[in-house]
């Protein structure tokens, strides 16, 4: 009896423990932090969750987060519809938009292929990508999944599926980060950097 | 415009980022996880927060989490009122109760002294501890704050304050964890273990 938490505390710990990257100890720590907070501060989080779930949806076309049927990028006529950048999550779009280098549209897979966890193309928004190709007149797909095993597997799969359809399929470059140091680069990254070398325009 | 999140998403990321141990990247990851969840699952967390804030309070006597004015331990007449175990947080009570070794009562400081962060005894429930000594006939205080710098500082402070009042003030033992390995113990722990050596009853 006294050796466990009261039901509402345990329920809170359980729910927090379901979040990604939150282990049982962190869930406990966060729960007690919330209990000690002034009620209005803790309820602000509860409110933010409900608000986000109420107001935010996924874009009908590209699965970016959106407040209406289409996200701001899909609603923007100035974006080039012939080139689609495929990303794992909406947050990747924010990162790419910050570069100011890309004027095409996006497609969010809402995840990445992971055979070990049983996540294949059918669990991702791959079919929805295929359905966009014809009506939007897509010519190039840039696969911007993360440069790790899952991201590479997904990129390979998409390339094999899309190339026979006559599309240009490209992959973002892997290499040394700008401002990085050769000495501290891992072999894999350095190998990729060499492999992806480009002629210097001089 | 397109390079930032819509307001409800940003609000959610901001609120999550205020939780202890959640950095900006984790906050983003958790926010998108919540957005992808079925609404009822995400709202269960929001509900758990509100429920906990509504139903859970701190015990009027010991500041353990409670659903009524007193926590289950303070309401239990079979607990020895003459010995109080002082802990930092309610979760420490759960850990100690699991041992089944302690039949006294508790006092939760709701934190620990941390001079660098400006947390002194007046930010903790120290005054409330003092007020319990006389009416409850307390004879011994076991200081069960964590065996780290802050916990030791707090233990030292409490000992210096309580001993002149004629109370027995003890500290939980530091030493090698049961099942641990001497070879892998750090010097500080090993030093404490030697310092705290006990006669073998043979």
Structure description:
2 copies of one chain form a homodimer. Chain A is α/β, with parallel strands linked by helices and 202 residues long. Chain A has 2 domains: 7-55, RecR Domain 1 (Helicase, Ruva Protein, domain 3), CATH 1.10.8; 70-199, Dna Topoisomerase Vi A Subunit, Chain: A, domain 2, CATH 3.40.1360. Chain A is built from 7 helices and 6 strands. In chain A, the strands form 2 sheets. Chain A has a 4-stranded parallel beta sheet with strand order 4-3-5-6. A two-stranded antiparallel ribbon of chain A has the order 1-2. In chain A, helix 1 packs across helix 2. Chain A is globular, with a radius of gyration of 22 Å. The mean pLDDT of chain A is 89.
Largest sheet of chain A: 4 strands, parallel
Write the element-wise H/E pattern of chain A from the N-terminal end onward: HHHEEEHEHEHEH
How far apart the termini of chain A lie comes to 77 Å
Domain module tally of chain A: 2
Q: Which architecture name of the largest domain in chain A does CATH use?
A: 3-Layer(aba) Sandwich
Task: Summarize the model shown.
With 202 residues, chain A is of the alpha/beta class. Chain A contains seven helices and six strands.
Which characteristics define this entry?
homodimer; Dna Topoisomerase Vi A Subunit, Chain: A, domain 2; Helicase, Ruva Protein, domain 3; 202 residues; 6 strands; four-stranded parallel beta sheet; 7 helices; two-stranded antiparallel ribbon; 2 domains; 42% helix; alpha/beta
